[in-house]
Specification:
mainly alpha; about 0% strand; elongated
Length: about 70
Amino acid sequence: MSVLAAVNGNLGAIGYGLAAIGPGIGVGIIFGQGVQAIARQPEAYGLIRQNMLLGFVLTEALALIGLVAPFIYG
């Protein structure tokens, strides 16, 4: 029975590692496109920055949910 518990814990770590790929890609897209938008329209810096930060916060919330979910449901 202890072998099964060890495998279960390792699968949770692998699952979180895979779940962190999505938010990582999302953050890269958000900031990459944001920098590109600022380079094209520097006068809209404030609005673009605000939208970039909002997108970043929402994307990172997914990563935190992925981190906490195995502890809650596991």
